[in-house]
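During the no-cost extension, the postdoctoral fellow (Dr. R.K.) reprocessed legacy sequence entries with the updated structure-token encoder. One reprocessed record is reproduced below for audit purposes.
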Amino acid sequence: MIVGYARTSTLDQIAGIEAQERELLAAGCEKVFREQVSSVDVKQRDQLALALDFLREGDTLVVTKLDRLARSVAHMHEVLQCVTAKGAALRIVNMGIDTSTPTGKLMLNILGGVAEFEREIMLERQREGIAKAKRDGKYKGRVPTAQRKAESVTGLIAEGFGASEVARKVGISRASVYNIIKATQ
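Re-encoded structure tokens follow.
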């Protein structure tokens, strides 16, 4: 059986998950597991775990891109080991890789290493860019969530509500309520 796995990082990436599903169905997938969670949060990737558990000997797990499956080379090897232990294969559509062949396994390892290297370089550049922007005074970061609710907090305090009740009603911590009160005095 050909089994597909589709993933996007956020719930608002509807077009992305639908495009992956179309591509997986075009690749002959008879069953598709899909989820919309970050690759970093491995503990919440329930559909990947179900897809891996679903595999049987002779099956093929298909993904559209390597980054939809694994977050690092180590994680890729972990997934690949699980797939091969079941007597199944892994196919990555956009790379033309099929691990049922020795060449496919070699290419996956090489390209997986290159992909991880590219990601690390990109993150390094991003960190450098943020540091430079901070030095130049151009990077302020996000506005603290609690500060955006200052008007509601001061209004409720003026109405006589206590800090704990205000925090509960507004959805911020009690410490944030006290910080807002302190800033407005």
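Strands lie at 2-8, 31-36, 60-63, 89-92, 97-98. The first helix runs from residue 14 to 26. The remaining legacy entries will be reprocessed before the final report is submitted.
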